[in-house]
Amino acid sequence: MGINVYKWIELIKKHKNIKKLDKETLGELISKIYVHEKQAVDEETTQLIEIHYNFIGNTDSLQVSYNL
Q: Which of 11, 19, 47, 52 has CA 20 to 30 A from 26's CA?
């Protein structure tokens, strides 16, 4: 699927006032989510999460760090 910014903007306009993220809305906005393996470095654990949005793809990856 190629990038279609115009469809993305229309989708965001449709959902700009949502109060609760439900399954249907999530399905409209996001095509897939990848959660990578945890990686421990020193005493910190990190985990990469990639979110691929409908019509525009992956705009950035989220890296989560936490201590166990």
A: 47
How far is the C-alpha of 68 from the C-alpha of 65, rounded, in Å? 10
Residue whose token pair is 């990578």: 36
Q: What is the pTM of this model?
A: 0.64
Residues 21, 9 contacting (CB under 8 angstroms): no
Where do runs of H (alpha helix) occur along 1-68? 5-14, 23-29
Question: If we measure between CA atoms, which residue out of 10, 13, 3, 6 comes closest to residue 56?
Answer: 3
Give the whole-angstrom CA distance, residue 14 versus residue 38. Answer: 35
Give per-residue pLDDT as tens, 9-66.
Answer: 888 898 889 888 899 998 988 888 888 898 887 888 888 888 888 887 777 655 656 6
9 SS3 class: helix
